[in-house]
Design goal:
Radius of gyration: 39 Å
Low-confidence stretches: 54-60
Order of helices and strands: EEEEHEEEHEEHEEEH
Strand content: 25-35%
Largest sheet: 6 strands, antiparallel
Length: 208
């Protein structure tokens, strides 16, 4: 508080001595108040950015492998590959065919199908896109013949499955417009029936 001595105003009024609040004890100036408000807004913006936009993606985010079901089995994709060199991924007469009529695209996949009885089947699929429907029909007719060769199963390039040999006993294929869909299966564990493995090969043609 500041002490004020008695004095007369310009109009002659006598003012007694009194105390008044000092300038230092008065409220903050307008500029100080505005500065405090701006700082508060900035802190709020930074907090919201950290919550909604600045945090790193959750470590629990995962990508689920494609699956499908057939014959009491659930098939899960374990590998996939795309290429344009069918000759480099085939063998036998089929390899020779691709040397004369190159494909324009090749997609291969590998699935592991399991049931609830401990049986597991490995499924190798391939889709060869040809230049015309007639070329696709010719390729399909050749690949269906025993001992003519085939597209190399992707298992041969997948760690943990390279020892699996595909015999062609459980095989399915069909031409679809300018493409040929091929699938074959082999047992992994348990004792899946031959009929089941043929059915899985047939159903796999729909997942290319």
């Amino acid at each position: 508080m500041d002490y004020v001595r008695p004095y007369r105003r310009k109009d002659g009024t006598y003012v007694r001595s009194h105390y008044r609040r000092s300038r230092a004890s008065r409220g903050p100036s307008t500029s100080t108040t505005e500065l405090g408000a701006a700082a508060g807004i900035l802190v709020t913006i930074l907090f919201l950015f950290w919550i909604f936009g600045g945090s790193e993606p959750s470590a629990s985010t995962t990508t689920t492998a494609p699956t499908w079901e057939a014959a009491g089995y659930t098939a899960t994709e374990i590998n996939t590959s795309t290429d344009t060199n069918c000759a480099g991924h085939s063998y036998g007469q089929v390899h020779q065919f691709f040397g004369e009529q190159p494909c324009i695209g090749l997609q291969r996949k590998l699935f592991k199908a399991e049931d609830d009885q401990g049986n597991a089947v490995l499924i190798a699929t391939a889709r060869a896109d040809m230049a015309s429907p007639s070329a696709a029909k010719a390729l399909n007719g050749l690949a269906e013949r025993n001992g003519s060769g085939n597209v190399t199963p992707l298992a041969h390039e997948t760690a943990g499955y390279q020892h699996i040999s595909f015999t062609g006993k459980h095989y399915a294929s069909h031409p679809r417009e300018s493409a040929v869909h091929i699938a074959e299966t082999e047992p992994l564990t348990g004792n899946p029936s031959a009929a089941t493995m043929r059915e899985l090969a047939k159903q796999a043609l729909e997942h290319l």
